[in-house]
Design goal:
- By secondary structure, the chain is of the alpha+beta class.
- It is built from four helices and eight strands, in the order αβααββββββαβ.
- It is elongated and about 65 Å long.
- The model has no long low-confidence stretch (mean pLDDT 84).
- This is PH domain-containing protein.
- Keywords: Membrane, Transmembrane, Transmembrane helix.
Length: 180
């Protein structure tokens, strides 16, 4: 696995920026790195709950504080990731602003729409930029047909897409948790 990540890192210097975005391993690794690291460091200490009857009050308070910190930082990011993964597992985004191209595919089927079909666009980001779940955001496209498409940050960084759609009745919102 280390060799594959290293080779992809090295070849990324020689490749051009992609225009087709899907949920990839590297994007998921980028989003889940800190929450999983926090869990890996904190979970061995949480194994002390097995010895609950033998712990002093002081040790129990420290253990509860550690559990609250580890789970409080990691679980929201893991829940958001699972929700985004379920939402955009089979979604493909084709985005090329230079060619004025934005297409969304669900599975092998293209969802037909043009810019004039967009009633409004919601771009939701996280208020804090320092939490494990701050990289999670989503873009919700409301079409004139009543259909709604949701693009999540699991596909790509959505800021350039939101900038591309800035003249399409874009509403920017910020939340603590960007649940879809």
């Amino acid at each position: 696995m280390t060799i594959v990540v290293g080779l992809r890192f090295i070849t990324s210097f020689f490749s051009t920026r992609g225009k087709v975005f899907r949920p990839t391993f590297l994007r998921q690794f980028y989003l889940l790195f800190w929450p999983l690291l926090c869990l890996c460091v904190g979970l061995p200490f949480l194994g002390s709950f097995v010895y609950l009857g033998t712990l002093s009050t002081y040790e129990l308070i420290l253990l509860m504080a550690l559990a609250a910190i580890v789970l409080g930082f990691s679980v929201p990011a893991l829940v958001l990731h699972a929700q985004y993964y379920a939402r955009n597992l089979h979604t493909t985004l084709v985005f090329d602003p230079k060619q004025n191209k934005l297409e969304v595919y669900e599975g092998n089927f293209r969802i037909p729409f043009a810019r004039r079909d967009l009633q409004r666009v919601e771009y939701v980001t996280c208020i804090s930029r320092r939490l494990f779940w701050s990289n999670y955001s989503f873009l919700r496209l409301h079409l004139a047909t009543g259909e709604t498409m949701t693009l999540t940050s699991l596909l790509t960084n959505l800021e350039p897409v939101a900038e591309f759609l800035r003249n399409s009745n874009l509403e920017t919102r910020q939340r603590w948790f960007c649940f879809v």
